[in-house]
Amino acid sequence: MTNPTSVLLVEDSPVALEILERLLSSSPDxxxxxxxxxxxxxxxxxxxxxxxxxCTDLHMKGMDGLEFTxxxxxxxPRPILVVSTSVQKEDTHTIFELLxxxxxxxxxxxxxxxxxxxEQVKRDLIGKIKILSGVTVFTKRQQPSVKAxxxxxxxxxxxxxxxxxRVITIGASxxxxxxxxxxxxxFPAEFPVPIICTQHISQGFLQGLVDWxxxxxxxxxxxxxxGESPLPGTVYFAPDNSHLELDAQGKFIYxxxxxxxxxxxxxxxxxxxxxxxxxxxxxxxxxxGMGRDGAEGMRAIAQVGGMxxxxxxxxxxxxxxxxxAIALNVVQQVLPIQEIAPLLLRKVGIxxx
Length: 353
Hints:
Blueprint: E1 5-10, H1 14-25, E2 30-36, H2 39-49, E3 53-56, H3 65-75, E4 80-84, H4 92-101, E5 105-108, H5 115-132, E6 149-150, H6 153-159, E7 167-172, H7 176-184, E8 195-199, H8 206-216, E9 220-223, E10 234-237, E11 243-246, E12 252-255, H9 267-278, E13 282-286, H10 295-303, E14 307-311, H11 321-327, E15 333-335, H12 337-347
Parallel strand pairs: 1-2, 1-3, 3-4, 4-5, 7-8, 7-13, 8-10, 9-10, 13-14, 14-15
Antiparallel strand pairs: 6-15, 11-12
């Protein structure tokens, strides 16, 4: 029998602390080994408790979540889950700065409410902790440069054929906000094709992610709206709780079908729709994330002659979604995250010195 995952809670609200402890303690696979009211207290506890995962609030007196995360990642890196109220717009930048600083994921702060909501929150939070318990954390996630790997030479030849790339579609889950930021931050405002993203993220944080990326990047970033046609230099995100697809005219539509591979929005649904409309002029990219969502979508893009790329294991926070697509033999190249943007810039004819 494996030891339960040890968790340190960092939270200045006694009520929130009690709820978090109750939720996590309901799982025999998780043990809350310590509680701290701010970052300073938590830093004192870490050497003694050696928690596998840390859950931290954003706003705390003495040392807030951002400063605390920076300290942990610089001195004793381990998986951090940011537990925060999602609706406060002024917190958007700080929440995603924590992810940039090395925190792995974000989760909405639980509150007392309906029993059905409580059970769902409990399942979701326990699921997050279990995912994070298997994450290898790197100080500031700095990775050595790694050469791109051609995993399917015959398909890689397709990627090198000169063609008119008309759209890029990206799928990601755990670790996705950080990875997507690394890519988009390197694109100029006049990026010549649209980018369509599907990111698995906790309910309530999507708009904050979009606002943060829009302020950080030169390309325009927004949630896709029904009836819009994808435009160059714009990044479109699938909405909460709906699949994002393209109609026969290439305009966005929402579909509230059942979850695919456990997710709505689903990467695979969007990838298949992009493949159907754009054909060989599409490029699909699978980034870090748990599960297999997107693998069948990558197959669809490959089958119509589009380009397919995946983030490598070494730079993934969770090597799940890319691994599943690679196993299907539908990925042309596997690359470290820092090489994906330069590759895409070359594919659209932008050469950086």
